[in-house]
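User: Second chain of the day. Same drill as before.
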Amino acid sequence: MANALKKAKESSILSVRRAPCGAFPLTLADCGQRLRIVRLLGGRTFQCRMASIGLCPGQRIEVSTNNGKTQGPRIVTTDAGRFALGCGMCQKILVAPWDNQDTTKSTTKPKS
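Assistant: Same format as last time:
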């Protein structure tokens, strides 16, 4: 019974259940997809490591390379640079599609 519970905790099924609506693990992202980090599921050490390289909830990222598989490293591009993340790290990063509406400036007509 303890082994079954341990395997369930390690599976991504529990991670997706704790995810906000529309969020999914970074391992499922396609190459070239623009995303926004929603939540980091790891512990304190993992969250500090991600914060030290600038990957925090709310950060916009783009998947540069994913090798066409759900397993393996991902190369992620941000404003700060490019980072290689392993499969285990990508499982702990929940992302959602990048909403372009929050980046567009309001268009007001100039007074004539």
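The domain at 18-98 is CATH 2.30.30.90 (SH3 type barrels.).

User: Great, on to the next one.
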